[in-house]
Design brief:
Layout: H1 12-28, E1 45-49, H2 52-65, E2 69-70, E3 78-86, E4 91-103, E5 108-133, E6 136-155, H3 159-206
Antiparallel strand pairs: 1-5, 2-3, 3-4, 4-5, 5-6
Helix pairs in contact: 2-3
């Protein structure tokens, strides 16, 4: 008795499922975007001359002198603030800046900074109400209103933006260091004046 050999032919459904799986696997193994890579040449950190206390205070001064409204967060080591700008009648830009500083214990400190730009646009939004039961629902437009909607949000990558911030922090840190250096000298001069005054008074009494 001979048994006829039957050749297996995949159905169209199996071919479609296999193709979909291959496409899914290719999508999962695709290369990440440029922002996902880790690099050392980023503008998000800078070594500043000065102690940790002085540099951290200088970072706060940089925020306040440039019009950023500081957020009241729970972590005092991380400072963040926002600043808004009206570009035109329909567009508004919000800058969010976050910074922290670490004392390197060698006369320098490292400042870490990240900035985000958010663009909001005034758009008309229609509102409506629905009435009825599940199988017979009627939606009726009621009104429309203007509201700001986020149209773009991105991390600022421009090194010039961060360099300007770091230079301002360094300027304030240098001013603070100069003030601290003058303070002992002023104290010595004040003590010297008091001693000279006391000696003149003693000489006047003896005369």
């Amino acid at each position: 008795m001979r048994v006829a050999n039957r050749q297996f032919r995949p159905s169209p459904f199996i071919w479609a499922a296999s193709l979909a799986g291959a496409v899914l696997m290719a999508g999962c193994s695709s290369a990440p975007t440029q922002h996902a890579y880790f690099r050392t040449d980023t503008p998000f950190s800078k070594v500043v001359q000065g102690s940790g206390d002085s540099v951290c205070w200088s970072v706060k001064r940089a925020f306040l002198t440039q019009g950023y409204m500081l957020d009241r967060g729970g972590d005092s080591a991380i400072m963040s603030g926002t600043k808004d700008a009206q570009i035109d009648e329909k567009n508004n830009e919000t800058l969010r800046l976050q910074a922290t500083c670490v004392d390197n214990h060698n006369g320098t400190s490292t400042v870490f900074t990240t900035a985000e730009r958010e663009l909001n646009r005034l758009q008309r939004i229609k509102t409506s109400v629905s009435a009825g039961v599940s199988f017979a629902t009627v939606t009726v437009p009621t009104s429309s209103e203007d509201a700001l909607r986020v149209v773009r949000r991105e991390t600022i990558q421009d090194p010039k933006f961060y360099e300007g911030f770091y230079q301002l922090v360094q300027t304030y840190a240098s001013e603070d260091a100069a003030a601290q250096a003058r303070a002992p000298r002023q104290d010595r001069d004040a003590r010297q004046d008091r001693d000279d005054g006391g000696r003149r008074q003693d000489e006047a009494r003896r005369q």
